[in-house]
Amino acid sequence: MDKNDLLNTDFEITDLISWRNIDGEILILDTSINESAHELNEIGSFIFLEISQGAKLLQIRETLVDTYRDQFDREQIEKDFQQYIEDLIKMKLLVPKK
User: Which tens digits make up the pLDDT trace of 30-70?
Assistant: First the structure.
């Protein structure tokens, strides 16, 4: 998916999974799609929670850029963010809003 298309699409967490927030980290139980479990790191959990609360991808990305600009350059943050979102889409954990 083109970067601009990706950022301008509203996504939501699929309702085919169960997930829990445990001390700030997300545990996903994906028994109906990929029959697997996923434990997200701090940044992955932040992104997942923001999406679950209806935040726009562009807004989430800009928050990450602001938060981590002293540690990483903007281009790397944007690239990693896009790859992470594409991975969630490929795993069918993230779907376009209906």
Answer: 877 678 888 999 999 999 999 999 999 999 999 999 999 99
CA distance 93 to 36: 11
CA 94 centroid distance within chain? 8
Q: In sequence order, what are the residues at sequence separation of 6 or more whose Cβ sits closer than 8 angstroms to the Cβ of residue 74?
A: 65
Residue labelled with tokens 């989430």? 60
Taking a C-beta distance cutoff of 8 angstroms, is the pair 54, 33 a contact? no
- Residue 98 within any structural domain of the chain: no
Write the DSSP symbol of residue 38. Answer: E
Question: Higher model confidence: residue 3 or residue 92?
Answer: 92
Q: What's the domain range around 25?
A: 3-91
Asked whether residue 41 is assigned to any structural domain, the reply reads yes
